[in-house]
Design brief:
alpha/beta; Rossmann fold; Alpha-D-Glucose-1,6-Bisphosphate, Chain A, domain 4; ten-stranded mixed beta sheet; eight-stranded antiparallel beta sheet; 32% helix; globular
Length: 661
Amino acid sequence: MWPAGLAETSDPPDAIVVRGRDPALLAAAVRRVLPPSPLPGTAVVLVRLSPPTPVSATVVHVVVDVLVEAGCEVAVAGLLTSRDRDRGHREVGALAHAAGLTGTTDRGRSYAVIDLAEDLVPSPAPGTSALEAQPVSRAWLTAGTRVVVGRAVTDLVDTYAGCLDALLRAAPEVAGCEPADVAVEVVRHLGPHLALLDALSTSGGADGGRLPDVTETDTVVVARDPVLADITLAGLLGVDPSSSSLVKGAVAAIGAPSGTLEGDHRPFRGVARAHPLAVRAVRRVARDVRLARVLSAATGGPDAGSVRADPVLAALRPVVTEAVRAATDPVGQAGLVALLGLAATLAAGGETWAATMDKSRVERRVVSLGFDPGVHSAADYDGLPEELARVDAVIDRLPMSDDPDALRWCLVNGATLFEVRRLVPGDFDAWVERVDVAEGISLMADYIGGRRVLVGDAVPAEGGGDARQRQAERNLYLPQPNYLAAWGGEPIDVCKIELVERGPDRHRLLWRTVSSPNGSAVHDDGTLTFDRAGGSGTMVTIRGRQLFTLPTALEAVDLPSVPELHRPLLEEAYRRFFTSTFDNLEACFEGREHRIGRPPPDPSEPLLTESVRMLVDALTSRIGSGDGGGRGGAQPAGAPDPALDQHGFRHVRGTRAGAAP
């Protein structure tokens, strides 16, 4: 269970598991793990305040006492997440007071209580980060000592939550960005100097963070690294550390933490968690941010001190809460799995419709670059022309067509090598002034998000050669071909190193895939070229080598072995994609909008009661969850009339088979 590198030692530890409730023992552990750098100055202690399972005031007050004794002015901080607001909470101060954090420790030391959503400044994170220019708290950013205190709870989506979950509150939520990506960037650029996990009372069960099921475990983990703290918690809970998407993402991006662990780290007894089938079902639903918020708001509650929930949410809570509460055993989880399976199917249907029929409804993504461009040498970037010349050599041997817009292609080792071109009626000099070849990939069809950064300094043209610029990029596209979305196809997500060449008569972008974070592509390499053509036109040519991963449901089909089916499908898919790509490039030249999709859901937007109603209907009509206390199929009094769900579909309940009309 313990990762390599974690072992007990007599040297100063990187993490200590403190057993018992003696504040003196905890204080001693905090002093030993705190960094040796001078502490005087401002210290900010970021804590989990989310009801009904905030951190223990006892643990926070011990940390405050140690910091005050070291000469710090201390502020205890929190931030309301969208899920806190969905559950009816409005003020950080009120949550802190309810958690016993009233500004004075038991030993009489004073501290401030602050909201990290106030006094925001742009993040100093670099261009490779999803936090670039995002608003962050000045207090957290400038603190001389940063501490995060999480609470040991189980989680229906991530199995468990700890310090990384609490650390997400260091900055306002980033719309369109996965929490795991945000957690990685916070650790990298806004990370704490000390992390504590409050496991004095571990809240287990299917979703201990929202449905308290308390086991007195009398433990606190003190660590220099929040990832190390969470991995230690996973060991105490007896679960795989990577079952948390936050921990898995941090280890993949930053590396597994190494260090020394001191103390009794035998697993806890009696802490239940959700059945694996329930976890898998809820993760399918949680891919839709709006549905994930609905599920969170409807599990447990109402919380003390919260404002009254809207009628639809109030009607749903008893049913969903009982389904979640029962999801710790093989039999009890069946109801929740049935409910969430239906909800996930409806959500997936909406995503498929958007990807294939109404791309204006696709939600755009925000991502970090996903790799360190400095790992690749200058020779890797500058060698792209020679490397891609091998692809060009294969394509050059393919027969030309009389149709200038024709697709040339062949298969080599399973990958498709291709060329498409179009003569556009735009003067070359005007074209390259308005259409930057360096941005070419983001101008292609079905682009839903990404990030591009320059690498090193530009190389000026010398001796008649072209000016060159190295860059790195990550791109996300809809599943390709789009119809694969109906088979569970993932968006194409690729990280690339690139070289831009600019000459008097040719501008060219060359790229090679170095990784695919979601495993959607083996190859996605190629070139985009703008050539000065005769007259007043510009020849746009795209060449590439592509090998995308098929959904599991289609892997065994082996379409290339059926050329009479594979050839027309492939050619039609490429024609559609690159016709739209050329249209995008011309739209860019003419100053017209060309991007598909819409902005991602704003975390501050209200909870969608239409989505809640969809789940209510699923419960009452599909899995026989009873009449909900006499409600039957009727809508709660005062609830909104039936309306479109978040994907634009209207849900109409019809007569079930065998039922009387």
